[in-house]
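#random but structural
TW: two for the price of one
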Amino acid sequence: MVNVYYDKDADLGVLSGKTIGMIGYGSQGHAHALNLKDNGQKVIVGLYPESLSRATAQEAGLEVADVPDVAKVADILMMVIPDHIQGRIYREQIAPNLRAGSALMVAHGFSIHYREVVPPDTVDVMMVAPKAPGHRMRELFQQGIGVPSLLAVHQDATGNAKEIGLAYAKGVGCTGAGVLETTFKDETESDLFGEQTILCGGVTALVQAAFETLVEGGYPPEIAYFECLHELKMIVDLIYQGGFNYMRFSVSDTAEYGDLTRGPRVIDEHVRENMRGILRDIQDGSFAREWIAENDEGRKRFNPLREQARSSPIEEVGKQLRSMMPWLDPKEV
């Protein structure tokens, strides 16, 4: 069992007198910065000069400065900018200004684990990774609940890295829900695997294939959409509440029998072997190198794939049907 830490295990006093630099003010950055500010911490947000987020952060009562200037004064520097640009921003703007004895933190281990960012041995290096999107994290913090988080220490130069990491986790509201101790390797590789094989890649590919199979079989796209996508939320909610057993308890016996007998035919050994291949690519760094190269080369593959996915038939049908259901608060990209 992993170690789990709560409010009683973390001391906000560890952050007393320290300046926390927040590099980025997107989904995660705004939640971290505002939660820490509300918990009495001194936070400075680091952004590039033309960033549109500067005004947003300032309107929220936060101090804003250029990234190099924040790196110079921060005792704890949290990078919450996209994975693929962390290496360049670190090398050009942070590394020359990072002070010995300070702490460098990330909310996802990608750049450290795959050595896009290689910190000097004079600084603490930790990860606090809340397990929720930033806006949800902020929302629950304001309700006094918080979201669970992961904590990992990559480098303990001062002997206080874990205590600082726990204090930071408490500052953003995560120790109320529980902070699980892990490693950069385990967090990074399991996170990428989950995203690719189930949470994003696996789910969307499975839904898309099922939708297309019904339409090819002569069924109306609207019916296929409801059966293969719309009702998915109900099933996921049941699993989220009580696991597979509660979901199977809640659906009909017909659905449960189809689940138990046909599910293994869809997700067969061939699919499992594909998953093992994806895991190997993550473990040996192949995916990381591919993703960094994709960005360095101008996203020549990613951008066409994104555009193709956004204009697929299931998206067009879904857009029309969601517009008929305003109670869903439908969103359009």
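TW: number two ↓
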Amino acid sequence: MNHKKLISRNIELFYNKASEETRLDKGMGVFEFERIKSLIEKYISSQNLKIIDVGGGTGKYSEWLAKKGHQVYMVEPVLKHIQIAKNRANKLKNKFCVQLGESKKLKFQNNFADLIILNGPLYHLQKKEDRDLTIKEAKRVLKNDGIILGFAINYTASTLVGLLNGLIHKKHFFEMCKDELTTGIHNPPSNFPWLLAEAYYHKPEQLKEEFINQELRYLNTYAVEGMAWLDKDYFANMQNAAKKKILIELTKITENDSYLLPFSPHMMIAVKK
């Protein structure tokens, strides 16, 4: 199969230029990595689970889960990421399996996994039918009573960032925000090449609907960053132990508040088969 068909050319080009590998090591990425690990841990009930990490990037989460003793299978469509992930897996005693593939067609048998993590597919697929296929496939390879954790970008994400840093007043940026707020479709303007490649930004209710429509049992939706990142000195304060404690507590007490969810750039849905 030609790998080019696995993913849109724009997304491939974006990740070939951007570094997914270093993104989680700096700025917001550091806090995102720690926070997502703590959210995943809520659904790791026992040792030695079979876990599929779909859209696993360069394998940072797969590595973390493998080190915890789980059987991890990472699926990823970007060749550049596959190579980095394989190098990462080879250094481990409990290696994780790395597979070039896509979320709409998983190479696993029915009822295979205890836990499936959808870390990129929901926001990299602009068409609803592709996201539906992804959720169907995850359900198919999931054991009964297994859990799917799906990560999505909130429809308000660019708008909030644009308001905080003044970009909202740039014509093309605002046009992009209007599309995201009304249709969910995100296409970065050509004069903002550093923005995420083509994507889909969900409304929290709609994210829930997409999973319920596949007859999966809804458990909860969590704010990833929550509203704490709106702290005007967020980065400096997250380096200060006392202030960080307050911001983390704020995130935890508001993480399931449906009214506050749109203030969080990312969210995680948990569902059960």
